[in-house]
Amino acid sequence: MKAIEIKAKTDxxxxxLISEKLHFSNKEVRVLILVEDEDIDEKSWLKxxxxxxxxxxxxxxxxxxYTTKHGKPFHD
Length: 76
Prior knowledge:
By secondary structure, the protein is mostly loops. It is 12% helix and 8% strand. The longest helix is centred in the middle third of the chain and has 9 residues, at 42-50. The termini are far apart.
């Protein structure tokens, strides 16, 4: 896998605008978004995190190993 870094902006609707021509076509790519000098609100952050495929393995049946019978109740 090769990484290419380019600058981009978003429009008023939040669409990503890439100002450079990519020198390949018909390729599947992954996009990593790093926001400069801005705070992302918690709701947007959690929404992006919940759709991150890095955590897809947690939905697999073999990861569901605990029940309510495990551990001790926590009362604060």
